[in-house]
Amino acid sequence: MDEDTVRFGGPWSSSDPTSLRDVFDSSYRRLVTQLFGVTGSMDEAEDLVQEAFVRAAAAGRRFARVENPEAWLRTTAINQHRSRWRKRRNAQRARARMASPRDPEALESHLEIITALRALPEAQRQVIALFYLADLPVETIAEELGVPAGTVKSRLSRGREALASHLAYAEGAVHHV
Amino acid sequence: MSERLLEAFREEVEHSTPLPDFELISAAGRNRRRRRHTVVTAVAACVLGVSGLLASTYGNRADPQPAGDSDGDSLARPFPVGAMTTLEKGTYELEPSGPSVPTVRFDLPDGWNSWIGPNRFEGLSDGTSDQVGSNEDVLGKGPGWLLGMLALTVDWLAQPGCTMTDVSRADTTELVEALTDVPRLEVVSGPEQGARFGHRVVHLRLREQRGTGACANPAYINAAPTAQVTYLGPGTTYDAWVIDLDGRPLLVWAAWTRDAPDDEVDDLLGVVDSIELVPPDPS
Questions:
Q1: What is the β-pairing status of strands B103-108 and B276-278?
Q2: Are strands B163-166 and B154-159 parallel, antiparallel or unpaired?
Q3: Looking at per-residue confidence, does A139 or B195 come out higher?
Q4: Cβ of B29 and A57 within 8 Å?
Q5: Which residues in chain B have their CB less than 8 angstroms from residue A80's CB?
Q6: Which of A67, A101, A135 is the last residue of a domain?
Q7: Looking at the 3D structure of chain B, how many domains does it have?
Q8: Which residues of B touch A42 (CB under 8 A)?
Q9: Strand, helix or coil at B48?
Q10: Distance from CA of A30 to the nearest CA of B (A)
């Protein structure tokens, strides 16, 4: 077997070995979508997910011990995002970057929801993204973020309210133009 | 309305996201793995009496190597455990011993010394890393102040009566209780529960008191596999973060001696603040 071919256990049957390439093909776009929700930036999401795959490739066959590769990749990407966020939260460069993230042309019709997501506090946006874009249950989100399930529920509740409020405001603003 | 918009958004992003070239990603991973293999992760076998933070080890390990240059596509480099050398500013990854223990990633300012964990001390010069033994020489002269950080899976802890208690199977609560009973270490704040580093944690701060010197064993922590941590001197502050990894505790232990300058302590706390746990450890 080639050194870069990874065979997974767990959900992937050993009789049907899955390579990192297979995980990439099946999960990359889904992960970018989820990280877009988490970060509010398409560029950042692509960078984080690609970095997570590089780390998986760097682990070689040892990555085969990972029971749920997509969850591992997502957690790796989110942790990296948290680390970067901490580093640059006080930096002027970061504020400038955050103020004008690139919005792919294909997503022009979704600017309303993108703007509303970006307006959420970081912690609420993470939970909203994992719940609605990754379809994860509250307990799994709690495990992936390392916070109690009650915290996830409260962030989810507050995030929903804030999101609805932002969307209603945006809709109202449009109607008044 | 939010749910409907989010669902439409998800479909559109998944549909429109371009797939990058997997071969480039795979090649970057291969390059990174090759570089990692050049850095020995084992621990040097030597006894250093100056500092408990610069713990003693007795393992039969390969010779340690200094940290390599940062590769262009890598955001972190392996922390050169056991290699006493002055480090460049950057992000490092430390791998505490123990099954399924996450990698501890942290940012270091320029000019820190490496050993079992990152540390700084009086007289440490940024330009001495190429001179073998120079940092040891400075330590040997007894620096006026010292500080550093360790990330450990703790096996044994000193307890009253010159005894050591086995905490290798202790949960977070039990380890915290044992920490509060370590001789000469007085709890000055906490224990306080919270969430940090992406996990539930218990934080407490302790301060070293003057000891009676009655116990022969200078170590108060034995950590996996063979590291020992000894006292740094009266007035030393110890900031302990006991991280709950699904019931198993990982101890992040930051310490600074009484005369450590405030700006150096601020840097140390910044290092702790930058910690990120990378689960699970695939390497």
A1: antiparallel
A2: antiparallel
A3: A139
A4: yes
A5: 75, 276
A6: A101
A7: 1
A8: 13
A9: coil
A10: 6
